[in-house]
Amino acid sequence: MIRSDQKNRVLSVRHLFVQTVASLYILLFLYAATSKLADFGTFQLQMRKSPFITAYAAVLAWLVPMVEIGIAVLLIFPKTILPGLFASFGLMTLFSLYIFGILHFSQEIPCNCGGIISAMSWDQHLAFNCVFLLLAIIAIVLKSDPVKITDLKKSS
User: Fold this and answer.
1) Buried b (16+ CB within 10 A) or exposed e, 19-49
2) What is the average per-residue pLDDT within 66-91?
């Protein structure tokens, strides 16, 4: 039979992982949003020059940082962390698909300007996003699938 302390340890590790992933996303989204808003003119200009989204640049320039801040807020509170993780996964998927599209279907690759992340190449940025996508998937599974003590193998 599984001991209570083993159950608590499993739950504690799962909780710590989920909280760590949520914290990483909070830092990432708040950093990204504040970088965009701090130099909004440049960000808006970059959006207008970006392939695939030029027609929507004016709206997206405001929408993207606001959504990033909104998701960060969701990730702060225990009752909204799971929807926040799903939203993080969704937004990071959109960002990743956009980068993939730029790399494979655009004749012109735009400047990756702004913030610390700008030091990465587009390929590195895509890999970075994929790591965050994987973290979100694991955190979602751990958060949404409670430990079933009866399913755990008996300890020796």
Assistant:
1) eebbebbbebbbebbebbeeeeeebbebbee
2) 98
Residue 130's contacts (CB-CB under 8 Å, 6 or more residues apart) are 96
CA distance 84 to 42: 28
For the chain, give every domain's residue range: 4-146
Q: Residue 50 has what DSSP assignment?
A: S
**Triad 100, 91, 60: Cα angle to 5°:** 85
Residue 150 pLDDT level (bands cut at 50, 70, 90): very low
CB atoms within 10 A of CB 101: 13
Q: What's the token pair of residue 136?
A: 């979100």
Q: Contact at 8 Å (CB) between 32 and 117?
A: yes
Cα angle 59, 64, 65 (rounded to 5 degrees) comes to 115
Q: 2 pLDDT band (50/70/90 cuts)?
A: low
